[in-house]
Backbone:
């Protein structure tokens, strides 16, 4: 069975600090996808990144970067020079690449990030 | 116009009421989903529809009844709910349901309170 663990529940930082959100996953599949979503106070989940299990290259997008380590089953997310607008709940998710008609996302419990001015 | 729109945004209902949540997607996607988000718990997948056909029901109580009249609209009919059903109900859509890592696009959710 798939499982996603986000051990951190709440993180509070001061603006301009760097912050890393941890994600550890479990799956028996060799082919899978990992995602990060952001949920601002307005409620909708906003897609941030998708990574497939064959691509272990780290990715950087502006102030965001992701570190995928297959050896430790981790897919950590770092925000550099955090801003107040980064305050949100962040979810890590896992999906199997193909499961017939029933492909679905398994989410972690989420990490509440608060960035103080 | 947002990609996935949910109405109402907030709903308070008594345990004997019947109400419906509505979701509409303007993205041309073929798959739609209902998720339940309770406090301190992971998002729980409730139902999956592909081309208007229900392909998954994740052991959801019968007091929740989904309906997908076409690929753009999804409803969740509610009746005789319990207070523990209070949660944020999120609708999502994706191009297909068969994975290959397609991300889901979410609506803003309906905050449901059962009194």
Residues:
């Amino acid at each position: 069975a798939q499982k996603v663990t986000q051990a951190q529940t709440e993180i509070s930082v001061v603006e301009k600090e760097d912050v890393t959100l941890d994600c550890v996953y479990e799956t028996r599949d060799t082919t899978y996808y990992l995602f990060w979503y952001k949920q601002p106070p307005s409620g909708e989940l906003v897609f941030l990144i998708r990574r497939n299990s064959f691509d272990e290259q780290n990715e950087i997008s502006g102030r965001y970067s992701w570190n995928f380590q297959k050896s430790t089953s981790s897919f950590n997310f770092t925000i550099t020079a955090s801003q107040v607008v980064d305050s949100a709940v962040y979810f890590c998710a896992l999906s199997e690449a193909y499961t017939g008609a029933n492909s679905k996302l398994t989410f972690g419990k989420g990490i509440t990030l608060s960035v103080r001015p | 116009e947002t990609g996935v729109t949910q109405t109402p945004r907030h709903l308070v209902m008594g345990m004997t009421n019947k109400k419906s949540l509505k979701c509409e997607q303007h993205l041309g996607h073929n798959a739609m989903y209902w998720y339940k988000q309770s406090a301190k718990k992971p998002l729980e997948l409730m139902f999956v529809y592909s081309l208007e056909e229900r392909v998954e029901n994740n052991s959801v109580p019968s007091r929740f009844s989904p309906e997908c009249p076409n690929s753009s609209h999804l409803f969740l009919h509610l009746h005789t709910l319990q207070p523990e059903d209070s949660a944020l109900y999120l609708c999502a859509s994706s191009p297909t349901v068969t994975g290959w890592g397609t991300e889901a696009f979410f609506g803003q959710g309906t905050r449901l309170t059962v009194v």
